[in-house]
Write a structure and sequence with these properties.
alpha/beta, TIM Barrel, 8-stranded parallel sheet, 8 strands, globular
Length: 311
């Protein structure tokens, strides 16, 4: 099996970074560097770029290259860079994954093809094809809200044992699925179980998951690092307390102007980063609707309220 490299801690935190854009809809490299440094300063173990939160599917190949190369440069020697690969088919996934690795990716996050549903055997062939194309660890992405086919725990365990994949990100919010993944892969050395279900990270860690990829860690990476450290130390009371705080902060996603659509949640994350002085603009990729002035006001009030509650 290709190992997840560079070495990471047992309860790792890997923020799925937004992609900062200029008001002219170009990748804002300076803001991206500040965002990367913000995450690294908090002590994260790695970063994920061009995932769902990074709007990777809405960017051109050249734009994705800029994001990967910049992230690899800033994170070199300090943290691993995982790159999300979106595609309609296996050939495109292989090509995109290879391009990401050539640009500096340490590992690639691969979902199922997004166009048509597949059998589990067909999905296995998809992951195997990508793994044979790149000289980097492959992490399977279980995201049932965005793909017609999901890798079942039995398939994940089979691919893990065969060395095809080195980890899985489970964004199903299904703790029973999390538990089954732990049970079926516990004898695979070094296999990474990464939760994308950010309101129950402590529960995922307690069940045996080894890391988390939470969207809120764009804005509050220090809290997630504290949660991971508490879990690593077996201090579940402290882990639960931090998780409770993060549960309140997840209200950022459900502000009235953000609720119910992907662009709202991503716009709220970007607007929070703007207001914290980390990125320059909350511009979203097209065809997403731009964040409204009302969302900006709601985020400002939310951040002020959250700051008061933590003092």
């Amino acid at each position: 099996m290709k190992s997840i490299a560079p070495p990471l801690s047992s309860q790792r935190i890997v923020p799925p970074l937004v992609t900062p854009l200029t008001t002219g809809h170009r990748v804002d490299r300076e803001s991206l560097v500040r965002l990367l440094r913000h995450a690294l300063a908090a002590g994260v173990d790695g970063v994920l770029v061009l995932g769902s939160t990074g709007e990777g599917g809405h960017l051109s190949a050249d734009e994705r290259d800029v994001v990967v190369a910049t992230s690899a440069e800033v994170c070199s020697g300090r943290a691993g860079v995982m790159v999300g690969v979106q595609s309609l088919n296996t050939k495109a996934a292989c090509a995109s994954a290879k391009r990401a690795v050539d640009a500096g990716a340490d590992h690639v996050l691969i979902p199922a093809p997004t166009a048509l549903d597949l059998t589990q055997r067909e999905l296995a062939a998809h992951f195997a094809a990508v793994a044979s194309t790149v000289d980097a660890p492959v992490v399977a992405y279980h995201v049932p809200s965005r793909t017609p086919t999901s890798p079942k725990p039995q398939l994940v365990a089979e691919l893990a044992a065969a060395g095809v994949i080195s980890g899985v990100k489970d964004s199903s919010s299904d703790l029973a699925n999390h538990r089954e993944l732990v049970r079926l892969t516990r004898n695979v050395p070094g296999f990474c179980l990464l939760t994308g279900s950010e309101t129950c990270i402590d529960m995922a860690f307690l069940a045996g998951f080894t890391g988390a990829i939470p969207g809120l860690s764009n804005v509050w990476p220090e809290l997630h690092v504290r949660l991971g450290a508490a879990a690593s130390a077996g201090d579940w009371s402290s882990a639960r307390a931090v998780q409770d705080e993060l549960g309140q902060l997840s209200g950022l996603y459900t502000l009235p102007s953000a609720r119910g659509h992907a662009s709202g949640a991503m716009g709220a994350l970007k607007e929070a980063l703007v207001q914290r002085g980390i990125i320059e603009s909350s511009t979203l990729t097209v065809p997403f609707s731009p964040p409204s002035d009302e969302l900006s006001r709601q985020v400002k009030e939310f951040l002020a309220l959250g700051s008061e509650s933590r003092t």
